[in-house]
């Protein structure tokens, strides 16, 4: 490969990377705004159990499960769909940093058992939501495929 050809390949890769970074950034900003809107609509009471963060993380993990099956097993979408929706929007929507801060706050305020329960419940519920959504989406995709062949 000549020097000019190498430079052209590098420029193409850089251009593609910029598009991915832009998609992640725009999606992440939108996801963070959506999460913030949910927190305004359903605020956590001072000293209360952080139900909002728990629900946001579980819903976000379920949506990630659906998305990953759709973009890897069902369709071949535009190359920016996964970075925009998965890494960007759903990455910005879910908030495992707030989850960690909530646990620390609960423990610091003398609610260690509640903090530990929240830690375990979020972990179990988020994993179950992602797994369950993936399973259900795969089954639905198989049913739709079988219906099309009939």
Summarize the structure.
The protein has 150 residues and is an all-alpha fold. The protein has helices spanning 3-41, 51-74, 81-93, 96-108, 112-149.
Number of helices: 5
What is the domain tally? 1
Query: How does the overall form come out from the CA principal axes?
Result: globular
Biggest sheet character: none
Please give the number of β-strands: 0
- The sequence of SSEs as H and E is HHHHH
Distance between the termini: 51 Å
The secondary structure category is mainly alpha
The radius of gyration computed from the alpha-carbon positions, rounded to a whole number of angstroms, is 20 Å
Helix content: over 70%
Average residue pLDDT? 89
Uncertain residue segments: none
Question: What report would you give on this structure?
Answer:
85% of the residues lie in helices and 0% in strands. It is built from five helices and no strands. The protein has helices at residues 3-41, 51-74, 81-93, 96-108, 112-149. The model has no long low-confidence stretch (mean pLDDT 89).
Properties at a glance:
150 residues, mainly alpha, 85% helix
Chart the SSEs and their pairings.
Blueprint (H helix, E strand, L loop, with lengths): L2 H39 L9 H24 L6 H13 L2 H13 L3 H38 L1
Helix pairs in contact: 1-3, 2-3, 2-5, 4-5
